[in-house]
Amino acid sequence: MLSADQATPRPCYSAVLRPGTPGVSVREVTSPADGVLRARLTPRGGVSGDWDLAVFDKASGTLVDASSGPHSRELAEGTVTRGQRLVVQGCRYAGRARTVSLGVDVVPGQGPTAPARPAAARTTARSALPSGRTTYRQLYEYQYELKELARIHPSLVTSFTLPYPTAEGREVSGVEVAADAPRTADGKPVMLALGLHHASEWPSGEIAMEWAYELVSGYRTDARIRALVRGTRSVIVPVVNPDGFAVSRAAAPKGDFSRFDYEDKRKNCEAGDSPLEYRTGPCLANPAGRMRGVDLNRNYAGFWGGAGSSPVWDDDHYRGSAPFSEPETRNVRSLVSTRQVTDLVSLHTYGDLVVRPPGSNDTQPPLDEPAYRALGDRLASHNGYRSEPARELYEATGMTEDWSYWATGGLGLTLEIGPRTAHPPYAEGVVAEYTGTAPAAGAGKGGNRAALLEMLADTADPAAHATVTGAAPRGYRLRLHKTFRTPTSPVRRPDGSQGPPLEVAETLDSTLLAGGGGFTWSVNPSTRPYVAGRYGREPQAPVQPAVLLSHPPALPPVNTDYPTNPAADRVSFTVEGPPRADNGRMTVSVNWRSRKTEWDLYVLDPAGRTVGESVVGDTDSQQVVMFDPPPGRYTAVVVDFQQADPAAPDAWTGRVDFRSPLPTVHGPTEAYTLTCEDPGGHRLGSTEVTVGRGQRVEVGEVCGAAAGRRAVRVPVRGRTASR
After folding, report:
1. CB-CB contact of 97 with 51 (8 Å)
2. In this structure, are strands 117-118 and 62-67 parallel, antiparallel, or unpaired?
3. Exposed/middle/buried for 662, CB within 10 Å: 0-12, 13-18, 19+?
4. CA end-to-end span of the chain
């Protein structure tokens, strides 16, 4: 047990604090074995509070690990040696809880080598980022900075904890930035920014964190930001996957992408899907290494289980046992399903891309495609990236915005930050990419700072979402509700066969707390895009016949570094145009025998630009799909990434297939159910609301005329008054 009589906000990880320091409680322990130390704090007695935790090597003062979560459920892990003397330091940050429970154990075995982490030191060096940061954050720094922003700026920032703890028991936290931030059900349009779905993609969390600082600092110094913050609500979760990130960030670099290259861990720390012999040991050091876990950006319900995700547990793109099987994706689902998130940005690395739905090759573009493309192009004009549908990078299913968009109608984009590595040097991968300076593609264009401001401006624009207006008494709660079921993709099995789609039940349930009199509620369209229809055009000529691709007589050398190493097979083919042919869809595909072989496919347009690629492992085929390909001479670049048996070459075969354009189709119209509840929770009124993107619907006094005339008692200077 740890005990402290007073709370003092401070970074517990900064240094070993002197005995008797207010708000601090310390225990000394000696490691009984070589292995991974796990120190935990848990609440006692049901009293709310926020304690933080740090573990130091006693002799050197080096930080082993720390945890600064939003309450008192903390986990600090690190590699220790037999006989090592340690200082376990608990710091009472806030709240009424004077005591917490402490547990310390060491999992014996050879833990991964980790770089030394000296206690945080003050520095005068600052970058051009809003926070001035110069190095990648650790998990405990994200946790601490999020709650510090809320503590220091209580009217502008409020912090929150998502409902589902991770496999290792960590809480996932974020902040909301808005004028009058604590009034979360205010009806403003919401922009959600998400970082670190993938543990090794460190810049994604940094950009999200800097975005929070940008809004807070800009509110006081920048008229445009101040207006946007007043008219919107920004919700920011920098670390969706804290378990995986803690492992990746703490690991020493290996750079070989092997099983025990923990720095390149992509997935979360779910152990239950792996074979029994691989379920032992902590995520930081276990028999399966970095391969254990689920790729969270393949675990959402949007087209889950199809191509571009893997049914095999140790694949980097493993989709999980079911849609939303993971607490991290259920957290995002809860957030999106209970808020009218009109715009969503999922941050990733790498590729210099702005990508939009769909990720599935078998899905026709949505009716929103022209506006969606224009939004992606506007962001790309600032960060210098290429704007395209997600499937033109490679086919993928189960992605965040492929669920959020098709289920809610909120526009969602992925930013693939930087050109060529998961976490490059900080000055390049974060500072330059955020601020728009060399060597980033957005140099001189505003960078991702300007791109995110462009997205927030779209959030504020009534033409980009729907609006419901009406009147309701002060303190009454309005609720927009809808339930439906959506099928996944046909589910690919580990043996390569295919099962039927699954049906996923969804509930959208958001609220507005009326301020009295008229209200304006920014919402998503009532008809979700999955059923609204598909965008297309009428054919102008016959479809082009298929083209066979023939590889050269000899295989190219194995090449794991394309395009730096250009070695590959190159086969050209012609795409015809009207009046000879009108191609609405082009599919370039290559196939081979063994799933242990990997050929990667890139398609170059007539100008030599890469317009599509497919680089998925654990498969016997790759596909690149383009819709409405411009006529001209294209090139298929087929890269020999890996041969199952170099002594028995596994050559590829390929072809190009074409389809006619599909006409635009329109589906059924859906409605929300809008209800009103009085402060006691009694339902007073209900109506159906049908509203489309860019439309404004007036619903009148949805609570009923009697409720509008009813006196509502509110506190006034310590008394109650009726008005």
Report:
1. yes
2. antiparallel
3. middle
4. 51
Q: Residue holding tokens 């401001």? A: 453
Q: Phi then psi for 357, rounded to 5 degrees?
A: -65, 155
Q: Give bridge partners of residue 41 from the DSSP assignment.
A: 74, 102
Report the pLDDT value the prediction gives residue 619, as an integer from 0 to 100: 83
Whole-angstrom distance, CA of residue 204 vs CA of residue 198 = 9
Can you read off the two tokens belonging to residue 56? 């130091």
pLDDT recorded at residue 615: 85
- Tokens for 688? 């159906």
Q: Please tell me the distance from the alpha carbon of residue 104 to that of residue 125, in angstroms, as a whole number.
A: 36
CB 408 within 8 Å of CB 345: no
Amino acid at 710: R
DSSP helix, strand, coil percent of the chain (3-state; round to 5): 20, 30, 50
CA-CA distances (angstroms) from residue 421 to 149, 372, 417, 428?
A: 30, 27, 9, 11
CA distance 661 to 93: 61
- Are the beta carbons of 216 and 176 closer than 8 angstroms? no
pLDDT at 692: 97
Q: How far is CA 606 from CA 354, 574, 609, 630, 632, in A?
A: 22, 9, 8, 9, 6
Q: Parallel, antiparallel, or unpaired: how do β-strands 74-80 and 35-43 relate?
A: antiparallel
Q: How far apart are CA 625 and CA 395, in angstroms?
A: 8
Cβ neighbours, 10 Å, residue 648: 10
Phi, psi (rounded to 5 degrees) for 218: -70, -25
- Give me the phi and psi of 467, to 5 degrees please: -135, 135
Q: Which uninterrupted H or E stretch holds 191?
A: strand 190-194
pLDDT of residue 109: 77
**How far is 305 from 291, CA to CA, in rounded Å?**
19
Angle between helices 327-338 and 400-408 (to 10 degrees): 30
DSSP code at position 318: B
The C-alpha atoms of residue 458 and residue 234 are separated, in whole angstroms, by: 12
Instruction: Give Cα 63 to chain centroid, integer Å.
Output: 29
Contact partners, residue 619, CB within 8 Å, separation at least 6: 595, 598
Q: Is the dihedral of CA 620, 303, 347, 455 positive or negative?
A: positive
547-549 and 665-666 strand pairing: unpaired
Q: Find the helix or strand (DSSP H, E) in which 404 lies.
A: helix 400-408
Q: What gap in Å lies between CA 229 and CA 456, rounded to an integer? A: 9
Q: Which two tokens stand for residue 465?
A: 């979402």
**pLDDT tens for each residue of 171-230:** 999 999 999 999 999 999 999 999 999 999 999 999 999 999 999 999 999 999 999 999
Give the angle 369-374-380 at the CA atoms, nearest 5°.
Answer: 125
* Residue 321: Cβ within 10 Å count: 14
Q: Give me the residue label for tokens 């493993």.
A: 318
How far are the Cα atoms of 365, 529, 535 from residue 663, in angstroms, in the given order? 11, 17, 7
Residue in the structure block whose two tokens are 């000696």: 30
- Residue 667 one-letter amino acid: G
Q: What is the DSSP string of 87-129?
A: EEEEEEEEES--EEEEEEEEEES-PPP---EEPP-------SS
Residue 591 β-bridge partners = 621, 653
Residue ranges of the chain with per-residue pLDDT less than 70: 110-124, 705-723
Rg, the chain, Cα only: 27
pLDDT reported for residue 122: 52
From 501, 486, 344, select the one nearest 409 (Cα to Cα): 344
